[in-house]
Amino acid sequence: MKTLCSFRRCILATLVLGLFGFAPKAGAQPPSADYSWYGEVVSFDQAAKTATVQLQTQPQVSSYAGDFKPGEKLVLVWAPILGEADRLLYVARVDVMEDINLGYILRAEFVSADTTANTLTVKTATPDGAAAVLQGATAKWIKATMPKDQADGKGIAMVALSTKPDLKLPEPPPEEEAATANPTGPLSNLAGTWTVETSLVTPLALGVTITNECAVAQEGTKLTASCKSGQGGTAPLTGEVAGNTVKFSINADLMGTALELAFSGTVEPDGKKMSGIVSVFGMDSPFTGIKK
What is the per-residue DSSP string for 93-137? Predict the structure, then answer.
């Protein structure tokens, strides 16, 4: 069963609860209560039981990572892949995420950011016994395991030395074949009210669907619209159509951070359905649009 939610609420839930991960297949074991992340050790303070680590980030994090100040308390949100993570998807100050205690998250103190290399250096608490691994581990990679549920203040449970990871999403199953793209053919008429539905991140995801109703106006090849979520939030749409191909973006705000969903697809010959790919946070997901 699909779960419908507002644009803003679905995106935040996706970030924090890890819906960019994948659901287990039928008959598989339930998802683990723990997850693991990877980072490169910069230093270890045995007396304070803290480690300074350099973490990889997705490119969009670098657009605002330079705004943080040394010593600021942050909540880091990982982009998980099958229960593991090697890149940060989103970073916010603690006051923005104060009620978030569940998901692929890590609380840490900001040290520095390299926006060219897409890395973030932070300081975080380590568990008892971590000194045996972290002492002398400078410039080495570690794998840290911790609970997804951190409501009771639990942090990292275990640390082990590791090699530098390169996690990749599994290949999704093939999508239903869309209409053949013909950008030089007759111009599709998209004016009207469309229900645009996006399933994050692939058909293997946890069944969460973002649904927006967009009242589209078309002037020549140009498209504009105001899109309304199921719970009343709105976001502007701009785009263009060429033949039966369409490209448009929906711009919104995520906890004070600008967010763009970039759509690219084709329109069916009857002009009442479109389908294609939407890109958000550097990940591609399928979308469909139905004209009322």
Answer: ETTTSTT--BSSEEEEEEEEEETTTTEEEEEEE--TTTHHHHTT-
Q: Is residue 174 part of a domain?
A: no
Query: How wide is the angle at C-alpha 147 spanned by C-alphas 74 and 162, nearest 5°?
Result: 85
* pLDDT, tens digit (0-9, with 9 covering 90-100), for 138-155: 999 999 999 988 888 889
114 shares its domain with 223 = no
Tens digit of each residue's pLDDT (9 = 90 or more) over 151-195: 888 899 999 999 999 888 666 555 556 678 899 999 999 999 999
How would you label 188-212 residue by residue, b for 16+ Cβ within 10 Å and e otherwise? bebeeebebbbbbbbebbbebbbbb
Distance CA 135, CA 278 (A): 45
Question: pLDDT tens digits, residue range 43-75?
Answer: 999 999 999 999 999 888 999 999 999 999 999
Dist CA 188 CA 186 (whole Å)? 6
- Considering the domain architecture, whether residues 158 and 37 belong to the same structural domain is answered as yes
Same domain, 157 and 36: yes
Domain count, the chain: 2
